[in-house]
Design a protein that fits this description.
With 339 residues, the protein is an alpha/beta fold. It is built from 16 helices and seven strands. It is globular and about 55 Å long.
Length: 339
């Protein structure tokens, strides 16, 4: 019987290596996959926890700035070429994918959070280079070690875990929903919920990391709908932190979907050990308590909700991707309820 916490998963052009000790083996695993003389995109914190050989094998090491992905990608794109290795969280991985979408080359990811970007093919593009875009990039190699993926402080870990749970949840009713993604999503949600219901000392970190991988796989095959459109727009318009926005909005968006996708939300609730009517409260509990948008940014004002609504209408994907899509005033109520 396969070991759920140690496996190699070959999925088309991509290989996912999951298990304890993968970070320490990453230089060897990269070499075995033909990553020689790569550019390493990372952060100082992530690099400090990685084996020295990872940087020694690189052609160059680039620290990714703590700015938006388009800005970060725009800053490094002139200094990289060939294969890229991203060691870090979602911002680092998405920066590498965005750069590769313009300059070419393969991308390998060594995640240090529960972000879905190592698995999905979604990303933004380098600022000023959008016209050169030829297609989205998916990592061809993912080296997923549960220890670095779950190493964040507890509050931040629960926020990024809610982002992972959102991937599983939204994939259940997104346009490309299918039986395979549903199985992955519900299993991922179950693992995330069970892990977060256990205190940090006794928590199964392998389960939590695997749940995030399965949720990301599910959303990567189905596309996005209400929750992600709202969260991405809040981040873009108000400059709020991505994982915390997902953690704040998820109880509200899942409650809003209970009558729009009743079968799917009931299945999600069952995976989290609750009923559909209590799914929002259960998610808040797993997130470590209720969060408010107004507490995430010092320079935001409720009047800016209209700016968010304007941007959502311009996107247009809520109307096309969400069952019984909410209108402008329903979206206003949804965001106001989380304010």
């Amino acid at each position: 019987m396969p070991d759920a916490h140690n496996f190699n998963w070959r999925d088309g052009e991509r290989t996912i290596v999951f298990g304890e000790g993968v970070l320490e083996r990453s230089p060897q695993l990269l070499a075995e996959s033909g990553f020689h003389g790569y550019d390493l995109l990372t952060t100082s914190r992530a690099l400090a926890e990685a084996p020295e050989q990872l940087a020694e094998q690189a052609r160059a090491v680039h620290e990714v700035a703590r700015v938006s992905v388009p800005e970060a990608a725009g800053e490094v794109i002139e200094n990289v070429s060939g294969d890229l290795v991203a060691l870090g969280g979602g911002r680092v991985v998405d920066t590498a994918k965005g750069v590769a979408a313009i300059v070419g080359g393969r991308v390998a990811a060594i995640p240090t959070t529960l972000a879905g970007s190592p698995i999905t093919g979604f990303h933004r593009l380098p600022a000023g280079r959008e016209s050169e875009f030829t297609g989205f990039v998916r990592c061809v190699l993912v080296l997923a070690d549960p220890d670095p993926m779950t190493s964040s402080p507890e509050e931040a870990l629960r926020a990024t875990a809610m982002n992972a749970l959102a991937h599983a949840a939204e994939s259940l009713y997104a346009p490309g929903a299918n039986p395979v993604s549903e199985m992955a999503a519900l299993r991922g949600a179950e693992l995330i919920g069970r892990s977060l219901a256990t205190d940090r000392v006794r928590r199964d970190r392998g389960d939590l990391a695997l749940g995030a991988v399965l949720g990301a796989y599910a959303i990567g095959s189905t596309g996005l709908a209400l929750h992600h459109a709202v969260c991405q727009t809040l981040v873009l318009v108000l400059g709020l932190p991505h994982a915390q926005v997902n953690a704040t909005m998820l109880p509200h968006t899942m409650s809003a979907m209970t009558h729009r996708a009743p079968r799917q939300i009931a299945a999600l609730a069952g995976s989290l050990g609750t009923s559909a009517g209590a799914v929002g409260a259960r998610i808040s509990e797993l997130a470590g308590g209720s969060r408010r948008l107004s507490q995430l940014g010092v320079d935001i004002d409720k009047a800016q909700i209209d700016d968010v609504l304007d941007a959502l209408e311009a996107r247009g994907d809520i109307a096309t991707n969400t069952p019984d899509p909410p209108d402008r005033e329903q979206l206003r109520a949804l965001i106001s309820g989380a304010w």
